[in-house]
Write a structure and sequence with these properties.
Tetracycline Repressor, domain 2, 9 helices, 0% strand, elongated, DNA-binding transcriptional regulator YbjK, Homeodomain-like_sf
Length: 210
Amino acid sequence: MALYAPQVETNAGYRRSTGSPRGEARRLELLAVVTDDLAVNGLVDFSLRRAARAAGTTHKVLLYHFDGAEDLLRQAVAKLRERRIENAMAAVAEGPAEASLADRIRVAWPMLTGEEPGLARVLDQAMGLAMYDPDRYRELGRHASEQYLPILVALCPPQWSERRKQGVAEMILSALRGFLLERLISGDEEGVAAGFEALLRALEREEAAI
């Protein structure tokens, strides 16, 4: 599979949406359709023209509402991450309020590994781009951290200091990203499962510490 290489299309020479309620509603409508298309067809060959076809409009209309192909891509990927986060948090919310951090991460993990194939594929591709060409696609990785870290911080025990919550959240995010990558490139489900259990034990020790 070829790496995604979007056409560099910017909004130069086009009017921009003024942020009116009607314009914002139209922008969100277009973004939802493009996001659904991205989940089905992935990042390969993504462009404004492909997005416009999916949305039943023109690339000029998209340039009125978005600051080029990469801006549209970033926002659509963020929407897909929101789906992943919402699925995970819904599963956590069904558990007991007094559940430990390790128990909450255990419940959330299947939402990352057993989600709809298209969603997982696009998010994997987005992180691959951020690693392959960080100068151009750093925002895809940075925004992922901005979305995930506050959720992980919120799962930590409330009595912890903010610094401790942030440090543990960073550890969890780094570990889970590593497990997802290892699962993708090696297919070693057994090894990933063992690593995940080790992470949970580390969290249990952290929570038991004074």
